[in-house]
UniProtKB/TrEMBL annotation, chains A, B, C, D, E, F:
The protein's name: ATP phosphoribosyltransferase
Pathway(s) it belongs to: Amino-acid biosynthesis; L-histidine biosynthesis; L-histidine from 5-phospho-alpha-D-ribose 1-diphosphate: step 1/9
PANTHER family: ATP PHOSPHORIBOSYLTRANSFERASE, ATP PHOSPHORIBOSYLTRANSFERASE ATP-PRTASE
Domain Histidine biosynthesis HisG C-terminal per the UniProt entry, residue ranges: 216-288
SUPFAM superfamilies: GlnB-like (SSF54913), Periplasmic binding protein-like II (SSF53850)
EC number: 2.4.2.17
Regulation affecting activity: Feedback inhibited by histidine.
Top-level taxonomic group: Bacteria
Length: 291, 291, 291, 291, 291, 291
């Protein structure tokens, strides 16, 4: 029987972007409405949809080989896992998830030390516990099933919650005391799986492809023609991140330049390229960049 | 300052039907997008939206006076609460929520006793613990954040989950070992709040109105005219649940009958009413029935 | 084993309004997404979802006992069926379906006789054949899978199609030559089923309830108080369709009148009622009227 | 040829609730997607869909006989129109539209007088002009096509805008200086149309029906049985707005009471009714109440 | 007057993907809501939207020159048509439509021969007839308007239906006896149209463009830089399907390679390319590949 | 403090395509639900969302430096603005907005001169006034809040309105008398802003990038390999708009050609390219073309 890699994907808000990223990387995962195990077009994969919160636990217990989940949920299992790559994508934006310790605007609590002996509600009991342990503070942590931000000050003294822009915190008249963690998804492997050579190589190939896709996001290809003598001036303008591919054109004294740039520098770079003599500048989309 | 009753409503899947029921009962609750406390047109109410799972806890701790939540989530706090009324409504249908102990079809586990020393995943840790305690069985209960039904047999030995029709259980090739609980929403009060006379009466009035609305669901009004002498025969046909209102018509020897019947008996009752001489039978909708 | 009535309901555009009508009549039918047979809360019914076009065929073949389908599709099986009731409801409006013979505006075809030897496209081959037979005309009838109205004049000489308002006919620059049929849903029974007494009574009770629901659509209840002496004047104003229920009030010389009127006459009737002295006029909704 | 009443309905946000109200009152209006004049089932009506802002202008010019539009938009034409009825409905809630004069929180403008010589942006140029004229203030009023609230203080000194809850005003850090007007829809007639007896009566009948529908909103019917001797006590409890209909029951010494109450008092009234001995209390919906 | 090619496009589930494919190929087709003939930006085309089932018939009758429709529906007209190209696209996936002969799981029918004298319901009467003729079996074929899979065994003995994954067949407890046909869309021409040189060339150009688009789906461009001496090793890795374009870079001893690969091999190919020394590997999207 | 460019973007139907175009050009604009000023990732921009109709006014008054709005709405401010570029994009299609003078089909008005002394309703009072002034015609222009096309002939004599396809004009039985203006969005600058060197250069860079994006719409890249000797023949076929990039392949006697073509000529060009010997023709998407 052929080898299999048991991989966990995060069910919930990260599910759709994760499956889209895998698809872009060449792994088509088919989920089922009826709660069955997903299938894929890679027969070497055994895929489990597991809540992001639980992937670390099952990796540590050794029931699965590897998984994609947020650093936040894996944090408390950190010592038992191999962190193969940070994959900086997320549900909607490219911003990381940020866990913050929050109190009412007019609360006497100013620092984490003021929490000693208080009550905290949070969906992230493990994250909060690890943080308090590091700070040497002892408080009662209560699991919150949601709607956490309306619990202070009536039901608890402080909460630990996820924030994106901070605007919901201001709207609820709350104040951030400290940031516990900022978190992107990572590709984690269990210790045992890493010792198996076949599994290790399989995981590394997946990581290579996933990183190639993320690398291509926010980047574009740029092609232009240039008098050969203007080349040094052009090279100075180009960001050094990848050396451009330069080839001679049929027209004597001209070269074609093909390079990769960050989409966000295009608006300042392209007008400058014209100034040094570039012609026929075109920008085209990319889908993977292997580093 | 005027008295206030602190009431918790269940945030989540029961939120919309609960607010609809309160509106029908005459209490308009306005929720806010921005996570603020809901307001209402009854200035004596202080409303908290709290997850159904947590209402029992905060009632027991005395932070709130009363609340509507499922019997299942309040079960472990039962001894500390007053159960003022069962309110048999639910998210979509009128069926109660049913918690079942489930294993793979081909599992050796046949009875709850076989779980001794095994691992169980469930969203209802408290419910499962109370059930195992009653059965005198000791097992490891693991909190599951969801997608519980795909965890057996790879990750755990058994699960405790909610089922509606059992069809998802069959689709996943699982088997029900036992039913822990069937559960409707209830109106619970804290012990302290019950000792306050004003709060007690306020809660009883709310319960009266809520029950009047539920009573009216699935019932209709029926009016008909009848020769007075056929009245005994008619009364035999009518279900005894409410005595009909009989009044004399201007036409000598005829009476008007106005009664309430269950909608589902209409299809067999109405043809029979015609047979005993009823005329001008009309059915009309009701919105409350006070018992 | 208990008796069963095999009933066919029309799958397609009539499905939803038919199931809604049955529900109103007290028969809750539950359809399944997975193509299975529908279930219901009446254990004496065996329900089949069959395309409206085919119900007549299977009734004639005796595979089912009764069914609801349009007169149009049952037309060619008319002699083999019992027509228990016309049920004037439809998908969106209360207008019947109208089948028309249509040609291009500038076609030389003026009457059905001009079709002799021509080619006609239609989704209703049976309807068209029966119509041509009655007219003694012989033409080639071609089954059309849809988009029939764009086939003239390029692909066929005439079409037979359903129209609602005629506006699509004008938009396509077509002309109506003749109307073949106007059609509402009917409740049909097979000849054999009618001979079975239990089935016959079961069908008659269903028809009674279905008609009571349709009768109530577009009608409302009206209650008012009136000086007794103004009663004759009032009775003249009221449409004769149902005699009103008149009862004496506790206040000497006054009567309460309760009656049913068509919703669409309310706007002219109610102002007149005030003129003859009616007070406390209120209008209320009805759900069934048994005739 | 028969008489016609030319009536304008407000196109825009009031369109849907206006057509719904007319339908409830017995006038079915059919609008067309293709921009054509609406039709109706009352052949005596000629219906025009005109923007709420323009109905007053065309009524004053005499092109139409009557129309439904907000008091705000008709205000500047007030002297040329007959105001037949206020119809307190609106797009979403039952709150009136409120026009306010608004400046930045930190603006030196404190009263309307401070606007002398300043620049104001508003969608309601006529409303603002009439208001300033009444106050004897002269300022430059600039028509605003929308997004008015972001114009202060960069582009203008003050704005006149519609507010519902004031929350958008606070979110934009603005301050209300004065309220110009609160406005519900009204039924207006032109002076000429009122002189025509047929048109006058037609309009009055429409107004009677429209008011009967609005009156029924937020009210319900209540029926109960009562020992006759408890009647005085009951009558004291009932709000005086409509005398209840009392009739004798077949059971000696008992009366049936049928009355109308406001939905929002039900929650306090019904528990009290039980206390005085009422039985079989049921609440039922109403669709029109004629006063 | 200029020449015109009469082309039929399939109305129904294939309509949208067909119009999208034509657009990608450079032919913009504009359909109208009002049932009119579609227009396009190619004035040499006369476009007809015809149900996929009927295109074969009208091609055979010579009313149109060419058309895109499924092999299944054209099958019975095969001898009268020229099959210019298979176009392997479909509504949702790239899988072909599969027609199967199906019976209840427990039916005695095991092979097509067992159907002799039985009754079969199907939407594809022509397909089924041609198949039975080839097998030398005689059975009664009944046209089914839909919901075919619920007809066995109550109404017919077997059905012929389309299946995608077979899951609906299992859910209905049915069994596949034989596969009649797997079918993709094809570009068909009528015999007469093929004899006209202008039409023939026009059709061949369309087919060239349509195939170029389908060829590009599921393929991507790949560019990389490589030490010239590693070229032989690289060429061995690359699938032979298209020879890569190799050009010299300005940097001595290095070449740029530009090639096309199937998207689904990228995940195994790219890691290997790195191993032979490729640098700056980027993947980019393609829209057409002309073979 | 750093320099800022105040730029106005058109709120309303152009908002979404404008923000999408800016994003493609490298300027990410973030709008807020709460009516606040938009932010962007270019800290040198101060962005105002202003209705397209008002941008010209505020540019002329000098409150903002530059803006994107339709030629139509800026027309009356033309003399006070600098027109930096036409940007031929629009809400849905690439067609410009067309303003037409319209009358009922049977109106006696045949030319603009016939409007002398008549009444015209229009949303574009400024546009219409400027047009009438140029024609030397004097008429009463009435601001219309919408639904303009139903106002003739009952309420006004003529209207000036926007048309896309003319189909709504025909459906309303109207006739076009004259076209006032066809209009695309433009990038306008105020006179003062143009005198500031920093602002001028900033605006020119933005215009360069915006035009590069629009240029790329409807164009594609084309790559092919060719025997060198066939190059002259190929160059004749290629549209002259951009000279192709020609480079030598590693294979002796072959060149690679990379060029840009209009998407709409591909369908006629590609088959011809094959005829002159091109191989490996692939088409790929572009995102910017700098001219």
């Amino acid at each position: 029987m052929s080898q299999k890699l048991k991989i966990a994907l995060p069910k919930g808000s990260l599910q759709e972007p994760t499956i889209k990223l895998l698809k872009q990387a060449g792994y088509n995962v088919y989920t089922s409405d009826r709660g069955l195990r997903p299938s894929s077009d890679d027969s070497e994969l055994d895929i489990y949809m597991i809540r992001a919160q639980e992937i670390g636990r099952y990796l540590e217990q050794g029931f699965i080989d590897c998984g994609i989940t947020g650093l936040d949920w894996a944090w408390e299992h950190e010592d038992a896992l191999e962190d193969l790559a940070e994959l900086p994508y997320s549900r909607a934006t490219v911003r990381p998830t940020k866990w913050v310790l929050v109190v009412p605007e007019d609360s006497p609590i100013k620092t984490v030390e003021d929490l000693e002996g208080k009550r905290i509600a949070t969906e992230g009991v493990g994250i909060t516990q690890r943080y308090l342990d590091q700070k040497g503070v002892s408080a009662k942590i209560e699991f919150s099933w949601g709607a956490t931000e309306v619990k202070v000050p009536d039901l608890v003294d402080a909460i630990v919650d996820v924030t994106e822009t901070g605007s919901s915190i201001r709207a609820n008249k709350l104040r951030i005391v400290d940031t516990l963690l900022t978190s992107f998804p990572h590709f984690y492997a269990g210790k045992e799986a890493c010792k198996n050579e076949w599994k290790r190589e399989k995981m590394e190939r997946m990581v290579l492809m996933l990183k190639a896709c993320i690398e291509a996001r926010g980047k574009v290809g740029l092609k232009l023609n240039l008098p050969e003598k203007a080349l040094p001036e052009l090279l100075e303008l180009l960001p050094s991140l990848h050396g451009p591919t330069v080839s001679h054109l049929a027209t004597e004294g001209w070269v074609a330049v093909d390079t990769i740039i960050e989409e966000k520098v295009a608006r300042s770079l392209i007008p400058d390229l014209k100034l040094v003599g570039a012609e026929g500048i075109i920008e085209y989309p990319l889908s993977k960049i292997v580093q």
